[in-house]
Amino acid sequence: MRKLILSAFFMAAGTVLFAQNLNDIQEKISKGKYDEAKEKVDKVLTEPKFQKNANAWYYKGVVYNELAKDTTKKDMDYRMEAFNAFKKYQELDPKNVLMTLEQNGRLFQIYEGYYNQGIAAFNTKNYDKAFSDFKNALTVKDYVYEKKYEINGFSFPAIDTQLVNLAGSAGMLAKQEDAAIPYFAILADAKLKGDDFKDIYPILVDYYGRKNDATNKAKYLAIGQELYPENPYWLASQLEAAGDDKGKRLDMYKELVAKNPNNSDLATDYGVELFNYIYGKDKPANYDERKAELTAALQAAINANPQSAQANFVMTQHISNDIYDMQLDYQAIKGTKPEDVKKKQELNKKIDARYEDLFKFANTAVQQYEKMTDLKAVDKANYRSVLNQMVDYYTMKKQADKAKVYNDKVKNLK
CA 85 → CA 57, 151, 167, 390, 398, distances in Å? Predict the structure, then answer.
């Protein structure tokens, strides 16, 4: 019995001592002696028997939160220590009495501290620090949001879009791409639209493309196209997937043009690539079929934008090559039989008709190039080419005066 009484005495003495320590800590907090309060609270919490006391953790949170405001203290992350202490307090005191009295305001202070630090670091291009602070701010914010806390009528949204975007941007600038991408994914999954978010979708498509993650690439490509259908990057990214295989690229172009019938630039780009493939060094096996595809692609480009100088120019080059092919066929007919004569007559009619087609597109191209006030080198070369085709057309028509007009334009082109 004596032993039990003695144990009870020590327990009572320990409780009194603990209460005194907490009173000392409170007093030092009230006097702004946070370093001394830290020493006291740290010592108290080294005792296993006091580590389950909610109030001790609360006071640690208060002390460390105040010390975090001292920018000279860099030996540890005092804000995160404070945050973890407050979480521990709330775990041990489900009623959250002490923090409820202050509307959990110190949690909001911790968030604000990290946010402001992150902005300062970002503005000075210390992106590693900014990324760390923004991530911590989001950790605090998510905890507060899940607890449904508010202060003076303010509460956090489910997604702090500005902060998430800042975190992703800081991470990318800090060259921590793998860690930054999930923040952009949060925004993209919410299908956010606006100037602040338009770049995240190409970033995600590019990232998952490089990671060979076809599922996520397709996911964010679809969302990006839905929100920003005019962005040419979506088309470019799909073409990149075809790699250097010419056949795959052309098939992809054909598919994209069919899906985007009003995109003149896309159809023109397809026409240029197809033109170079058909009339390159090696003649393709499906030559005639490809020529028909080229005609359709260029016509689609012109239908979408009748005044496109480039589309009309490429069409004239295509028709010129087509005329050349027919002229070779004409020269290959050596016989004088009636059927041979008939073939030549039919080819002549076709050649004449194609010259009329050439004139129509070349004339439009000339008009458009003449409207350009600052011709680039490539535009100037194309302009010279269609002028020469107009000369050839009028020469073929035996209209020397009109041929001279265009020939003079060639000579005056500098």
Answer: 5, 20, 25, 83, 95
